[in-house]
Amino acid sequence: MRCLFFFLARHNQILHQAIDAHNGYVFQVVGDSFAAAFHFAKDALNAALDAQQKLYNEAWTPSPIKVRMGIHTGAAQLQIDSNDNAYAGYATLASAQRIMSAGHGGQILLSGATRELVRDTLPKDSELLDLGEKRLKDLLRPEHLYQFNISGLPTTFAPLKTLDSFPNNLPTQLTSFIGRENEITEVKQELEEHRLVTLTGSGGTGKTRLSLQVAADLLEEFDHGIWFIELAPLTDPDLIPQTILSSIGISEQPNKTPLDILKEYLHEKMMLVVLDNCEHLVSASAQVTNALLNAAPGLKVLASSREALGVKGELSYPVPSLSLPDVKHLPTIEQLSQYEAVRLFIDRALLVAPHFIVNKENAPHIAQICHRIDGIPLAIELAAARTKMLSIEQISARLDNRFRLLTGGARTALPRQQTLRALIDWSYDILSDNERLLLRRLSVFVGGWTLETAEEVCAGDGIESYDILDLLTQLVNKSLVVVIEHSQSGEIRYRMLETIRQYAREKLMEKGNGESIRDKHLAYFVKLAEQAGPELYRSNQVFWFNKLEDEIDNFRMGLEWALASNTEAGLRLIINSIDYWEKRGDNREVQTWLIQLLDKYQADDALRARVLSSYSHIAADGGDLAKAEFLANQGLELSRAISNKQAEAISLMSLGAIIALNGNVGKGIPMVEQSLVLFRFLEDKRGQAAATTWLCVNNNDLELSKSFVLEGLKLYREMGDLTSIANCLSLLAVRAIWGGEFSSAILWLDEAMAIYHQLKNEKGAANLIGDYGLLYYWLGDYEKAESYYDESIIAWKKIDNVPVDWLNVHMAYTKLRQDQIANAIDWFILSAKGFQKASNVIGFVYTVEGLASLYVSQAQYRRAAHLFAWADAMRDQIGDHRPPVEQASVERDFAVIHSKLNDADFQKLSAEGRAMTTEQAIALALEGKIDSQEGSSYASQ
Fold it and tell me: pTM of the predicted model, to two decimals?
């Protein structure tokens, strides 16, 4: 113990001497941590160098002491008094501390601001190593960091400990985090002992910011990351598992619920999930949390809610108010900023009034304000925002008049929700009549809105459209509305804090005109979907996909209202934005909406027929071909019954394509051809392009198939539909591969991939990666093919819910050609089960052909002959014959079989194979293990 004190004393002595020698001022020492200020950046750097050299050369025993150092340059944010010399540079100190925390012992880190000041005066034999921009805990924006290197000191260190070094989706905060040191320490300790910790308290107490800060501090502790799940926009409790899936980046899977997927994915993960704003879905949040904790022993959950979830083993942690001064015994001005509530008020006041100064006159009023609003962070921020319009004294006086419930010791006797409501009441009461009216109407939006949206939905009955901008500006200035500078579509958007939105929504309902504004909200987003529909397949599609992504929560709100009031509008909203939903990959969600809406929609009209056809396509995309065919049949029957040619053309194309995809090309292709005739009659260019592209699934004539794709490609190029252009290029590449035209295929693939990257279309890229695998398979580079297939499988599982059965069977063929027989069998079995489950006939036939080829390699020629014959019969039956490269491969296997069997046996086996049922083929293909010689169980047949 005496040795430890000696080391600490010597460490402190070295640092003090180095700082003093270079005109520095030590203003804070906590344990072995020093905070010092310098007039010039070069002095700070020289002090750090001096200290590091002395620490490095000191004869420490038994091991050296290594100190990390961070240097940042900035001005003090708070001038306490013109005659006071105290230093209080909160932001500068916070930045320096975070920069230092990112480093390692012996390392000197500089911010970009400091680097600019010292770059021309560096000591001899030194340099600044550019480490790039890094996200640091609770700083507003990434910081560009540099490492100071000099001869004689270590220059090699581990990677910086920054937010972007660990898997997470923690949002960048737009304001600094103030205080809560004790709470952070306690919550982290509770998470060590409990798997579920729930931060409880009323709205506005800072639960979210505290959870984010704790999460940022724990990033190094969880191998599989920390994931922030925002539940506030949700109104449907069933969407909680899906929202978690989306936030983590896990795809949905057919025939599995999102909760089951989550339990399976998280089972062996070491992960922290932060569930934010559970209060409005507390029961569902509890059920999901309980299920996940039981399924995943390495999972921990940090939740925030106005009440505990009520899950077994949960630790409820009440989030206290920020620390407050005693208004009866006010501290000195210098001591006042030690209290968290005061520091938060000053920080937020400086954001709206950069020249704000704390002095002896207003300091008592600041303390009074913080005390009267109970140190609740949101309340403090709203009060501090008024410094732009009111003096501190005026704000304090208004609190006396408006917050009668908050006087004296009433805080402990009143629910926190009432406290926050009183503050919002005050904010609401000081608005003009039209500002209140607009605030109430804006509450109909979930997830934000644009100025144009507000002008259309909220104008009328007292507010002119041209007044919206000024009124919205006032709401922003009064901190009731937040500006989102750049949304996904690049537009300026606005939103309310959820607590404010709920308050305004209640006021809207109280006034009795909530239904009319929701009608306008629904009508607006139906119109937006109808406007977006054609644009989603034109040259400006990227902007429109992003725009609809911005509005996803408003779409959900509109659909929810449509279920109660206007199912036709709900169906129009979905059907006109169907390309967006398909690209987004939310098959399960969109099907849920369609089921509910169709169940309530009574009309048998063109809209229903169109919806049924689109619904069938979504079902097919999700791998349920049987359901897809049923829905497409319904759509076709209805369209013919109502004599609607447009709906009939769409239904015919959908049904034919689905039947062809299911392997019955001979039946499906004529339907698609009929749809093409109708589309041409209707002069529907997009329908023609889609139909001609679908006709390429007839692989019996590759040149004809190629001509159909080229015709579709020409039409899509005329329309500027980049997504469909890339899809056509992918189809051309596959047909070139099947025809042995490998040099052409690589050109098509590269062009398509460039477009998918331009569009940031992950689904298209994932599909194309598999096509690259197909190319290298037929080129004979099986290792490279396997690498592409593996990459494609991973990509699909991450971004979408489409089955990967075709990739599985391609992987099986690749393993077979590398003589990895056991692995090949596993992959063939996996693909066979998938194709059987999806009722995909041609996929299963292709799998059986692969197993037949495997049996040839294992000298099981009789079994192989039976299976190849059955596959030939099935292909004849469904009208889908092998493309040239596949046929050549099968013929090589036939040649081996012929060489091992006499003609009579071969003819007999072929006849028996063609006569087998599918069940017999399955039993024969998957029976027993593979032996080096003909299996005895097979020989007995």
Answer: 0.62
DSSP 277: -
Phi, then psi, of 181 in degrees rounded to 5: -60, -45
CATH superfamily of 181-318: P-loop containing nucleotide triphosphate hydrolases (3.40.50.300)
Position 424 scores a pLDDT of 73
Q: Give the pLDDT of residue 408.
A: 31
> Rounded CA gap, 313 and 895, in Å?
67
Q: Is the dihedral of CA 149, 154, 157, 161 positive or negative?
A: negative
* Helix, strand and coil percent figures for the chain, each rounded to 5: 65, 10, 30
Instruction: Judge contact between 705 and 732, C-beta under 8 A.
Output: no
DSSP SS3 for 800: coil
State how far the Cα of 845 lies from the Cα of 835, in Å rounded to an integer: 9
Quote the CA–CA distance of 257 and 704 in Å, as a whole number: 42
Domain-by-domain residue ranges, the chain? 2-162, 181-318, 333-416, 796-939
DSSP state of 219: G
Among residues 264, 181, 166, 164, which one has the least CA distance to residue 223?
Answer: 166
> For 405-455, how does the pLDDT look when each residue is reduced to its tens digit (9 = 90+)?
333 323 332 333 344 566 677 678 778 899 999 999 999 999 899 999 999
Closest listed residue to residue 126, CA positions, set 55, 70, 37, 46: 46
In the chain, the amino acid numbered 314 is E
pLDDT tens by residue, 22-49: 998 887 777 778 888 898 999 999 999 9
Query: What pLDDT does residue 89 have?
Result: 54
Task: Find the DSSP H helices in 739-840.
Answer: 742-759, 762-778, 782-799, 805-817, 821-837
Distance CA 314, CA 311 (A): 6
Write out pLDDT tens, residues 606-644: 899 989 988 888 887 777 778 888 998 999 999 999 998
Could you identify the residue written with the tokens 């992959």? Answer: 827
8 A C-beta contact, residue 359 and residue 337: no
**Does the pLDDT of residue 88 top 70, yes or no?**
no
Is 339 exposed, middle or buried (CB count within 10 Å of its CB: 0-12, 13-18, 19+)?
Answer: buried
User: Rounded to an integer, what distance in angstroms lies between the CA atom of residue 248 and that of residue 262?
Assistant: 10
Beta strand 196-200 pairing with 299-305: parallel
Task: Give the model's pLDDT for residue 405.
Answer: 30
Tell me the three-class secondary structure of 45-68, residue by residue.
HHHHHHHHHHHHHCCCCCCCCCCC
pLDDT for the residue 401: 45
Cis peptide bond prior to 167, omega within 30° of 0: no
Q: Considering only CA atoms, which of 302, 241, 296 is closest in space to residue 270?
A: 296
Q: Is 271 helix (H, G, I), strand (E, B) or coil?
A: strand
The answer to whether the CB of 766 falls within 8 A of the CB of 753 is no
Q: What SS3 class is residue 899? A: helix
- The matching CATH number, chosen from 3.40.50.720, 3.40.50.1000, 3.90.226.10, 3.30.70.1230, for 2-162 is 3.30.70.1230
Cα gap 202→161, rounded to integer Å = 34
The confidence score (pLDDT) of residue 915 equals 93
- Sequence-ordered list of residues with C-beta below 8 angstroms from that of 840, at least 6 positions apart, any chain: 625, 661, 662, 663, 805, 834
Mean pLDDT is highest, among 298-307, 520-529, 896-905, for 520-529
What the block records as the tokens of 909 is: 């086996």
Angle formed at CA 611 by CA 606 and CA 617, multiple of 5 degrees: 135
